[in-house]
Amino acid sequence: MKYKNLQSLVVGFATLCLMAIAVSPAQAALQVDITKSSDSAIPIAIVPFGSSQGQQMPVDVAQIASNDLASTGLFKIFPRGNMLAKPSSPDQVNYDNWRTQHVDNLVVGSASPNGQGGYKITFNLLDAAQGQSVASYQLNAGPNQLRQAGHTIANLLYQRFTGKKGYFLSRIAYVTVTGSSADKRQFRLVVSDYDGSHPSTVYSSQDPIMSPAWSPDGKKLAYVAFNVYKGVSSVRVQDLATGKVRTIASGSGVNGAPAWSPDGNRIALTKSQNGDSNIYVYNLSTGQMQQLTHSSSIDTEAAWSPDGQKIAFTSDRGGKPQIYEMSSHGGQVQRLTYDGQSNQRPDFSPDGKLLAMVQQSANGFRIAVMNLANNNVRVVSDGPLDDSPAFAPNGQAILYATQGSSNSLATVSVDGKAKSTLSQAGEVREPAWGPLGY
């Protein structure tokens, strides 16, 4: 989508090309629960959108936008039940009513048929204190694109307030585990919207599935599949539109931890030969495999820097797992982490300035964020068993797996001030966050 920035932003939603995924329905959607909001959360009221013909839209786009913003912990959503009125245009707003309820920011909007079977949605962001419109927006949505329209509204508002692109049209991948006994356990690789809605199973097996990784264009997933009976692990690349699978590494021993290069042409992975686990890079065009590390220790969990010049990875070459860095072509290795008892599972932020990791301390395993400019480390999750950090595509939040009373996914802002959980029946693990989606 392209934004045409005049006084109003026009989003050509009807031209949005939504990717088809060759999948089967998953069992259940993740449920989002806001567990902690920022102390400086932005107060905002999003009024239910009206209709020019008095007909209720089949999807409540205003509620979707509200849920999106609330899930970040950066916005404090004014409850609908407390609204004294529900205007749908700026000329219907009584600003005094909103000021008495301490509402600083107000969103009002409406929808009407666009003559093409879809809807034209118009909405305004209002400054209640000043009693005026700050920005107006218009977008077109096809008949089956209203949920995406709600996410787009949230993206526009998020960017207006934070200066960063929203991630509400992105998708996530994760692994679910159901079944109480070994012979009944079922592993599923699932792709869903960022908030867990519209889940679809990409691959399922009675054997473990691990380490999903998105291609930079969001069209493919790499992951690790096991055949326990044969004692074989495989790194696979699956096209989400066709379901076609390509195996790039397979055999006994370790074949795991795939990570895409930023250009999408190479995949870093871990292979073991002669008992040693090292980092390799597979060229998807030539089919050639290049060994980057040559250590008798365990080198694994590679992560590419956004410019493609460096690879961070986990190694126990110093005694306990720590994060090291090298050129993406191999060569000299530099240790990055020293805090805590151990550090592992690195993930670069999209701008390359931060590194997320799992840090072990006396409080268990928690998600930490390192500022690569000064090596300062901030612990952002509560533990005691947190794993698999993955940055949001705008770099403002981190998705991770957490174990406790329930095994679920969670998101946390990079400063640790805002948290939410995504859970369902059974275990949810191994999350990966895809690209922006627009």
Would you kindly provide a written description of the structure presented here, covering whatever features stand out?
Keywords: Cell cycle, Cell division, Periplasm, Signal. This is Tol-Pal system protein TolB. One of its GO terms (biological process) is cell division. InterPro entries: 6-blade_b-propeller_TolB-like (IPR011042), Tol-Pal_TolB (IPR014167), TolB_N (IPR007195), WD40 (IPR011659). The protein has 438 residues and is mainly beta. The protein has 2 domains: 37-162, Rossmann fold, CATH 3.40.50.10070; 171-433, Neuraminidase, CATH 2.120.10.30. It has helices at 61-71, 95-100, 146-162, and strands spanning 3-5, 8-11, 24-25, 31-36, 42-46, 50-51, 75-77, 105-113, 119-127, 132-141, 171-178, 186-193, 200-205, 209-214, 220-227, 232-239, 245-251, 255-260, 266-273, 276-283, 289-291, 299-304, 310-315, 322-327, 334-335, 342-348, 354-361, 364-371, 377-379, 385-391, 397-403, 408-413, 419-423, 427-433. The strands form 7 sheets. Strands 1, 2, 5, 6, 7, 8, 9 and 10 form an 8-stranded mixed sheet that branches.
Largest sheet: 8 strands, mixed
Distinct helical segment count? 3
Corresponding CATH superfamily of the largest domain: TolB, C-terminal domain
- Radius of gyration equals 23 Å
Which consecutive residue ranges, at least 5 long each, have pLDDT under 50? 1-26
Family: Belongs to the TolB family.
Organism: Salinisphaera hydrothermalis (strain C41B8)
Domain TolB N-terminal: 30-133
Protein name: Tol-Pal system protein TolB
